[in-house]
Write a structure and sequence with these properties.
Elements: H1 4-20, H2 27-38, H3 43-63, H4 65-73, H5 79-110, H6 113-132, H7 147-158, H8 167-177, H9 182-207, H10 217-242, H11 248-266
Length: 275
């Protein structure tokens, strides 16, 4: 049987992954901090993160299952479905190419407290800027986006390879700067997460295949279930939230969290090194 302490850790980390993966606050930064504080940042902890990230992706797939199923079944006959598929492929490519070429170097040189904290804080100020500038919208929904809009969001997503940036934060705020409405930017970020995170998960599974064990099935099942549920809640909650609010609260949260990163690193509480 799985150690009860590990199951508790799995529940806590599953909640953190699910709630932060699709909010503009960086799930990676939160998982590093929580993993270190829980003492669950060894090889098993890193493999566990792959499992709960996959579960979080499935939550988005489930939430948008009707649109995704319709897109797949009508891609040869409906221009709207073809348009979405093309935009997702275009947006996916920058991170895929740059990640393939530079991921090892990024992890080696940029996983340090100064970079992580700076990304949190700079991202927070960019959100404040995006919300306080005049917001000229030319794409109210994802169906209004052009391939050029998608490419710009794709390059914004590539910035999320810098630890602490946040994939969802980069794509959502990038979308606001590029003329997307809050809803369009948020929903396109969700859709773009599917191919991006599936690819990242498959790569991580292949790279760490020797670390997977049948003994960890119950651990992964608990963490994955909790991650799925909390991600589902976060995705639905964010869509409701942005219908009445802007992203300013996330900006101040990022700035505060960046300060926490610096303090925890300075005090030696957390190892923000190569993860």
């Amino acid at each position: 049987m799985t150690d009860p302490t590990l199951l508790i850790n799995a529940i806590i980390l599953g909640i953190i992954e699910g709630l932060t993966e699709f909010l503009p606050v960086s799930s990676t930064g939160h998982l590093i901090l929580a993993g270190q504080l829980l003492g669950f940042n060894d090889d098993k902890g890193k493999v566990f993160e792959i499992a709960i990230q996959f579960a979080a992706i499935l939550a988005v797939v489930w939430e948008y299952r009707a649109r995704l199923a319709h897109t797949v079944t009508s891609i040869t006959s409906e221009s709207v479905s073809q348009h979405l598929a093309i935009n997702l492929m275009v947006a996916f490519m920058p991170a895929a190419v740059l990640g393939f070429l530079f991921l090892k170097q990024i992890k080696y040189y940029l996983f340090n407290p100064i970079v992580v904290a700076s990304a949190f804080i700079i991202g927070g100020f960019l959100i404040l800027w995006a919300e306080r500038r005049e917001h000229v919208v030319h794409a109210e929904s994802i169906d209004d986006m052009t391939w050029k809009d998608a490419l710009k969001v794709g390059f914004a997503q590539a910035l999320a390879m810098i630890p602490g940036t946040s994939r969802s934060g980069a794509t959502i705020i990038g979308g606001l700067f590029f003329g997307l409405s809050r809803r369009a930017a948020t929903e396109f970020s969700f859709f773009l997460a599917i191919p991006t995170m599936f690819a990242a998960t498959l790569y991580d599974v292949y790279k760490n295949r020797d670390l997977f064990s049948v003994d960890d099935v119950s651990l992964f099942a608990v963490g994955g279930t909790v991650s799925f549920i909390s991600a589902f809640i976060a995705v639905r909650g964010l869509i409701r939230f942005i219908s009445k609010h802007d992203f300013t609260v996330f900006a101040w949260y990022r700035i505060a969290f960046g300060i926490i990163v610096l303090i925890s690193a300075q005090m030696g509480w957390v190892d923000w090194g190569n993860h």
